[in-house]
Automatic annotation (TrEMBL):
<keyword id="KW-0808">Transferase</keyword>
<keyword id="KW-0418">Kinase</keyword>
<comment type="similarity">
    <text>Belongs to the ROK (NagC/XylR) family.</text>
</comment>
<dbReference type="InterPro" id="IPR043129">
    <property type="entry name" value="ATPase_NBD"/>
</dbReference>
<protein>
    <submittedName>
        <fullName>Sugar kinase</fullName>
    </submittedName>
</protein>
<dbReference type="Pfam" id="PF00480">
    <property type="entry name" value="ROK"/>
</dbReference>
<dbReference type="GO" id="GO:0016301">
    <property type="term" value="F:kinase activity"/>
</dbReference>
<dbReference type="InterPro" id="IPR000600">
    <property type="entry name" value="ROK"/>
</dbReference>
Amino acid sequence: MSNDVVVALDVGGTGMKCALVRPDGTVHHAERHPTLAARGPEAVTANILDIAAGLADRARADGLTPVAAGVAVPGVVDEETGTAVWSSNVGFRDVPLRALVSDRLGVPAALGHDVRVGGMAEARLGAGRAERHVLFIAIGTGIAAAHVVDGKAFAGAHGAAGEVGHVIVRPGGPPCGCGARGCLESVASASAVGRRYVELSGVPGVTASDVVARAAAGEELAKSVWTEAVEAFADGLLTAQALYDAGIVVLGGGLAESGEALLAPLRIALDARITFHRMPRIVRAALGDTAGCLGAALLALDTLEAPS
């Protein structure tokens, strides 16, 4: 077993994080590549297969044996059939990625949703490892979540579980990309925070991290925009806690990089809203942007352990 590794790829809209990972979760080798999404889904698929094959070759050159592969992708993923059903930023439409990777490498493969596998990694290897019931929420351009119990993330009947970004927290509020108005991600995602500040200030190009820095420096408008986002997030999290009863909420993604500037007021706002539910611990993710790649590796290792 000591020479075994799995090939792991986390495919994002702009870049891929790739690694050879040992069964105990340690990374033997890591590399990053551009996704080349602008070239279209066929080119992205070919790129994924070439990189995966290159990693397998690298493993063999290092005297290791690639025994499985795991791939994480954004969008709608059918994990049972191993199909990348739909992705807006990569362009996948019903791509049988698991079978393609398995055929190319000659090993078993697994395909997972990027946020769900990131949640698995945080639950097993990261900030949630002491808890059985973990809710991982990624806050970036959008907001998505993974409900992980005993290290397993639940996909739901249609592969769309955990879409807390589309809980409506401000009825009739800002339009969301999904077609509804007032969704959590239309108010409290990183892109929404930046957009709101630009709208109110007329200053172009301000990002969520700029808003956090300006709020910390005492600027009133930034403090107001940030408080608005945190309050909305607490409303969404209250609904999530009513549904999932998590022991710990792990926040990842770009907005979580603001650390206690987000966590401290969020804890206060959620505590003020909670009635009979238990208050979860709220912490920042520990694995950073490697969570998806490590989660893809865990998915591959789980495939080996699953009864055939």
